[in-house]
Specification:
- By secondary structure, the chain is α/β, with parallel strands linked by helices.
- The protein has two domains: 136 residues, Aspartate Aminotransferase, domain 1 (Alpha-Beta Complex); 278 residues, Type I PLP-dependent aspartate aminotransferase-like (Major domain) (Aspartate Aminotransferase, domain 2).
- It contains 15 helices and 15 strands.
- The longest helix is centred in the last third of the chain and has 22 residues.
- The protein starts with a helix and ends with a helix.
- Bound molecules: pyridoxal-5'-phosphate.
Length: 452
C-alpha cells in the first residue's frame, strides 16, 4: 500500500465520489477508511470508529464475517467467473436460487433474477412489470407510481420513480409515465397530519385518486420501500403497505417492494414486507445479501408474475434484460454463506432489541436537544434524527452545524451518516448493547457542543 502521505495528497483528486460535489470533496477530502473489525472501522490516522452506518446499510454482519470471506476465497479458486446468460449456469447460483425461494416463501416468492446491486434490481423489476402486462395482453400498462421521499437507486428508471429532487433535477428529463404520491411522513406532509394512521389513510386516498386520474389500465406497477430508508427513515403506519396491496390488487397493478435495505433482517423481521404482513409481487434485494462484501442483488418474483412468463409460447416472454455479472458465482457463494450465517445468528432478534434501544436513546436526546425536530425509527436498526434550527417553523438546520455534529461525533469514535437535515443510523445488526450506548453518548456530546 502507498504510504499515508501519498494517500492523503491524492485523496479525491483523481476520482469523483458518488452523491458528492467534486469541488467540495477536493476542498474537504473524505475520511480514508483502511480497516474494519466487528462493528468497528479504522481510519488512516488509526482512529477507531463504531460504524453506525453499517457500510451503507449493507454490512449487516459486521466486518469480521469469516464464513463469507472464506466462501469468496474458495469460490475465487474454484470458478472466479462464468456467465449465466442463455446456455450456461454455475453450481452456486442454482443452489442460491433454491435457498432464496425458501427464505422468501412467506412472501410468496418463487423465482429469482440476479443483478449486481440495488439499482440494477429496481431496473429489472420495473422492466419485468411492463413485460408482464404485455404478455397478459394489456400493453397499455406502462406507467409507474411511487412515493415522494422514496429512494430507488440512480439508474434512469429508478431515478424516475425516485421521490427526491436531489437525485432527479440534474438528470431530467427522466422517464415519462412516472407519478408520485405523498409519503406517509408525519413530520412534513401536504395534509398537515401528524397522526400516522390518519396520514396513511390520506396517502392511500391520494394513491387511489392518482390511479383513477391516470386510468388503471395505463399503470404497470407501484414501487415502494416498506420503510423508506435513504429519504430519512420513514416508517409508515402498519396499515399503509397492506392498504397499498389492497388498492393495487383492486386495480390490477403490480406491487414491487424495494427491499434493498429492508430484506435480510434490518427491520427486525426477515423482510419489510413480512414486517407488515404483505405479499408483494416482486421484491428488489441487494446490499446485505452478501454482507456488502461483493456487489450482488436478486429480484424475487411471485408465481402470479412468474407463471405469465413461463407459460408464454410466443417467445415474447424471453427476458431481454441482464448484466454480465448477473449470477456471478463469487457473489452467489458469498450470498449462500451470508444467508446461512444471517439465519444461524438469527440477527432479527438483535436488530429488534438494539433498534428499540437506539430509538429510546434518540428520543431521550430529543428531550434534551432543541435542534432535534423529529425522531424516527422503532423498527429494527433503521433510525434517524431530523434536525431543525427552529422547532416551531421546522426550518432546516444550517449545513455547517450538521457538518460540525458529524465531525464531533467522529471525534468521539462513531461514524454516522448525514443526509440533508437527517442523521441516519443503520449499524450492523450484530452491534452490541455497549456499542449502541457509545453511539448515543457520542451524539449527545456532539449535540451539546453545537448548542453552546
Ligand atoms: C431502497 C433502495 N433501493 C435501491 C437502492 C440502490 O442500490 P445500489 O446503490 O446498490 O444501486 C438503494 C440504495 O441505497 C436503496 O436504499
Amino acid at each position: 500500500m502507498k504510504d499515508s502521505n501519498f494517500l492523503k495528497a491524492h485523496n479525491a483528486k483523481h476520482l469523483w465520489h458518488p452523491m458528492a460535489h467534486p469541488a467540495e470533496m477536493q476542498a474537504k477530502p473524505p475520511a480514508i477508511i483502511t480497516g474494519g473489525e466487528g462493528c468497528v472501522i479504522k481510519d488512516i490516522n488509526g482512529a477507531q470508529l463504531i460504524d453506525a452506518v453499517g457500510g451503507l446499510w449493507n454490512v449487516n454482519l459486521g466486518y469480521s464475517c469469516e464464513p463469507v470471506k472464506q466462501a469468496i476465497t474458495d469460490q475465487l479458486n474454484d470458478l472466479p467467473y462464468y456467465s449465466i446468460f442463455r446456455g450456461t449456469t454455475n453450481d452456486k447460483i442454482i443452489e442460491l436460487s433454491e435457498v432464496l425461494r425458501d427464505f422468501f416463501a412467506p412472501e410468496g416468492m418463487v423465482r429469482s433474477f440476479f443483478t449486481s446491486g440495488g439499482s440494477d434490481s429496481v431496473e429489472i423489476a420495473l422492466r419485468l412489470a411492463r413485460q408482464y402486462h404485455k404478455l397478459r395482453g394489456e400493453p397499455g400498462r406502462t406507467k409507474y407510481l411511487s412515493l415522494k421521499k422514496g429512494y430507488h437507486g440512480t439508474h434512469t428508471g429508478g431515478a424516475s420513480v425516485n421521490g427526491n429532487a436531489n437525485f432527479r433535477t440534474q438528470y431530467e428529463p427522466l422517464m415519462p409515465g412516472c407519478f408520485h404520491i405523498p409519503a406517509p411522513y408525519t413530520y412534513r406532509n401536504p395534509f398537515n397530519e401528524t397522526d400516522p394512521k390518519a396520514l396513511a389513510e390520506h396517502c392511500l386516498a391520494a394513491l387511489e385518486d392518482e390511479i383513477v386520474f391516470q386510468g388503471e389500465t395505463t399503470i404497470a406497477a407501484f414501487i415502494m420501500e416498506p420503510i423508506l430508508g435513504a429519504g430519512g427513515v420513514i416508517p409508515p403506519h402498519e396499515s399503509f403497505m397492506p392498504g397499498v396491496r389492497e388498492i393495487c390488487d383492486r386495480h390490477g397493478i403490480l406491487l414491487i417492494a424495494d427491499e434493498v435495505i429492508t430484506a435480510y433482517g434490518r427491520t427486525g423481521a426477515w423482510s419489510g414486507s413480512r414486517l407488515w404482513g404483505v405479499t408483494p409481487d416482486m421484491m428488489c434485494t441487494a446490499k446485505a445479501i452478501t454482507n456488502g462484501y461483493f456487489p450482488f442483488g436478486a429480484v424475487m418474483l411471485n408465481w402470479k408474475v412468474a407463471e405469465i412468463f413461463e407459460r408464454d409460447t410466443t417467445g415474447a416472454g424471453a427476458i431481454g434484460s441482464g448484466y454480465t455479472y448477473s449470477g456471478h458465482p463469487v457473489g452467489a457463494a458469498a450470498a449462500l454463506a451470508c444467508i446461512a450465517e444471517t439465519k444461524r445468528l438469527n440477527v432479527t432478534k438483535n436488530a429488534a432489541a438494539r433498534g428499540t434501544q437506539i430509538f429510546k436513546g434518540l428520543k431521550n436526546l430529543a428531550v434534551k436537544h432543541e435542534i432535534i425536530g423529529d425522531v424516527r425509527g422503532g423498527y429494527g436498526l433503521m433510525s434517524a434524527l431530523e434536525l431543525t434550527s427552529d422547532r416551531k417553523t421546522k426550518a432546516k438546520p444550517i449545513k455547517a452545524t450538521v457538518d460540525d455534529i458529524y465531525q464531533r461525533v467522529y471525534e468521539n469514535g462513531v461514524m454516522i451518516r448525514v443526509s440533508g437535515p437527517n442523521i441516519i443510523l443503520s449499524p450492523p445488526l450484530v452491534i452490541s448493547e455497549a456499542e449502541v450506548n457509545t453511539v448515543i453518548a457520542a451524539l449527545d456530546t456532539a449535540l451539546t457542543a453545537v448548542s453552546q
